[in-house]
């Protein structure tokens, strides 16, 4: 990554970036040379600058196959550095104590997690092996011996030796677990791919690596006391002010420490899909693009429905069903029912229930009357004065003169029937 950061300063652009990592991640010399030829066609000076950094020390094609690792970056060191980043700011003794306690717990947690696993291979290696199994379906196996095969993978033809555990693509040699070509040969012999994984990635070896423990350490209070006095070593102070800040990259963002700016990145226009400018600096902004891009679909809001439809289609399906029902209903099939919406478009419920607004008799009523008075007349006007309650006939909500809370006054039997008959 550091080599790429230096090389990319002279050769900028996404095309150079992709070609650099294509060369560095090539597993065999054939792919390595093909990637170099592609870079030479782009810019011959980039090949000269690339070879100055000694590719044998950072390209996969020159790696030692006995390491069983394909790492070409310093991510392992950076990960551990981030793991102890808070402890590094402390005094030497307390820094070592924090690192010791953190590693002591890490060993126990890693061992307990692997003990829960029932597979023969470690979980991460098993996940990578599953990807190779999916690619193995595109391989055509031609047997040449008991353990020697010729595999056709698209336009390539490779040789696989199961006894020596090698493949022409060199992935199996570097990885330590079978590649897709080897998996196809293993299935051709009706065997399991997990049996051909290197011993370093087996569950038993992993548990042996974490079988040891880091013993606990007592605090300073319980340290033994000795007779002689121990003085710290002499401190030699160099000339000048000591450096406290690290050396920053010239293109590092000052507002975000550790993050690089977008300096040197090649922009891609969303309108014409060409590099060199963005949508704001599109040369033909007024002209319509030849192939207009559709906006990306937004993620549906809410939880997924049980019927399989996305949440955003709930209202669409309901509106479609309502429109279909209205279109299928004929003009003569509609029933003439009285409206149940009262004043303010509030729902008027049935007889004897509480409702708000004007009553069916045309009078403005109350709530039936807890402790109030209900007056009914034969002219069809009903009104109630008082508090809350439900009375006979149609009652509605309102405010009367009496606002007490009491039991409603009973209407004499037969009095309400005369009103209904009238």
From TrEMBL:
Comp. bias (Gly residues): 360-372
Region (Disordered), start-end ranges: 228-422
Keywords: Metal-binding, Zinc, Zinc-finger
PROSITE patterns: ZF_SWIM (PS50966)
Low complexity bias: start-end ranges: 312-329, 373-385
Keyword Zinc recorded: yes
Family matches, as Pfam families: SWIM (PF04434)
SMART domains according to UniProt: ZnF_PMZ
Domain SWIM-type stretches: 158-190
Residue ranges, compositional bias (Basic residues): 343-357, 400-410
Domain of life: Eukaryota
Protein name: SWIM-type domain-containing protein
Organism: Spinacia oleracea
Gene that this polypeptide is encoded by: LOC130470590
